Amino acid sequence: MIDLTIHKQGLEHNLKKAREQNILIPTIAQTQHPETIPGKVRDKLKDVGLWDVNPLNLFRITWKNEAKESGGLFQEVPNYIELPPELTGVPCRIIAMVGKWFPTGCHKVGASFGCLAPRLVTGQFDVDIHKAVWPSTGNYCRGGAFNSKLLGAQGVAILPAEMSQERFDWLHEIGAEVILLAKNVDGVYSADPVKDPSAVKYDAISYDDVLAQHLCVMDTTATSLSMDNHIPVLLFALKDPQNIVRALCGEKVGTIVRE
Predict the structure, then answer these.
(1) How far apart are CA 246 and CA 201, in angstroms?
(2) 10 Å Cβ neighbour count for 57?
(3) For 158-213, how does the pLDDT look when each residue is reduced to its tens digit (9 = 90+)?
(4) Which of 53, 75, 234, 241 is the most exposed place for a label (fewest CB within 10 A)?
């Protein structure tokens, strides 16, 4: 059950941010029945694309978007495809929902919105002091970072290595502050600590040194992309779940890789 306890100070900060950035949050009823969305909002959406970093895209967190990259409104029937028995070999109708026409091209933007919105409207999440953390290998993190930007919150992406250049560039574009890389070891070492007992752990190291010493931090492409986009990377052991909390609280954990 969702905790709806009101935190007055946080709510005041959130309302101030919303006014400054013209943020309007849709109701649950409006996402279920987009035909009830006010006409003024619908008119403005005609000039907004699905990938635009525009708070109006919050009203497109619904399965009933028109199948348009830009300017689309809403339709009565949700987006879906039907897989026939001739294809599946199953003697019944199978319906698959299509998330392509959500903002960012994936329905996970809705799942992450559902996590953040209740805490914003109650003030439990304070945009002045809190950060929204999105751990994922893919679209949940993308949706969470996108919603954070639309809602005036600072997003933090937790990603593994070997992500595409497109994803790193996009996260940087929408203001992802830090990429946290959870690994099986507790930081960056001068050598493989399993094979070399004399290996030294670094508290901090530069991208240039990582590349020059050929250290196994993450793949070369990810290292170069993070360096080029001025994104610091914190590497820590995922074995202890509290390490994520410690990292976000600014405690010394793992190894920070930066310029």
Answers:
(1) 18
(2) 21
(3) 776 566 677 777 877 887 776 666 667 788 888 888 888 888 888 888 888 888 88
(4) 241
Tokens (6 digits) for 129: 């002091």
pLDDT of 225 over the 90 cut: no
Residue for token pair 């001068």: 190
Sorted by where each starts, the structural domains of the chain and their CATH numbers stand as 8-74+101-122 (no CATH), 159-258 (3.40.1160.10)
Helices (H) and strands (E) counted in the chain, each on its own, are 10, 10
| Cα distance between residue 228 and residue 66, in whole Å | 37
Of residues 40, 3, 1, the one with CA closest to residue 24? 40
18-32, 45-59, 215-229: segment of lowest average pLDDT: 215-229
Q: Are 37 and 27 in contact (CB under 8 A)?
A: no
Question: What is the full DSSP assignment across 183-234?
Answer: ESSSSEESS-TTT-TT--EESEEEHHHHHHTT--SS-HHHHHHHHHTT--EE
- 212: phi then psi, degrees, rounded to nearest 5: -65, -35
